[in-house]
Amino acid sequence: MKTSLNIIPDNPDLVIIALNPTQEAIRNGGLFSRDKSLWNLLIRAGIIRDSINDINLKIRAKEVCSGLHTHLSIGIADLLPSVIESISKNVQVNKGAATDLFREHPGLKNSKKIVLLGQKVVDGFSLDFPNLKKWRDLPKIEGKKAFGEAQEIEIAGSKVKIFALPFPNGNNIPNKHELYRKVLDD
Q1: What is the 3-state composition of the chain as percent helix, strand, coil, each rounded to the nearest 5?
Q2: φ and ψ at 153, to 5 degrees?
Q3: Is the pTM of this model over 0.90?
Q4: Is residue 8 domain-resident?
């Protein structure tokens, strides 16, 4: 069995959930260790401090999740931690993936806010929590998706705010940091 790179504290303020680890993340032993795009967005959004720039990419997730470089308790996880694939279109999310993640990481249900990165993660969560909007059903403002809109789920008696956000790279959405900042504002 493969070891998960997910790091979720017992009572996180915020958990960021991506789809799955890449080969490089597994080799590096850390999520989001391939490039700086997520870290730069989190800095620009005011979620983490720029002191993270002094830390090697391979251990940034561990540093942030240990409470360094931020005023929040942050978790970082993959919805499918054992599916190692660099091309997301090759990854399929089945019903039960989100509930499995909650079962494997009990602290997740204590999270105040969860950020779901990208369409497959949002739609995967909606399979297990039908009250969540699917990616295609996110509201639009002036013809553009209203990313960052908070929704809510209840898990084990706890209410958790859910935010749908675009993945940090691989798209041309301008000013993504402003979308990520909405997590702090809500």
Answers
A1: 35, 20, 45
A2: -125, 160
A3: yes
A4: no
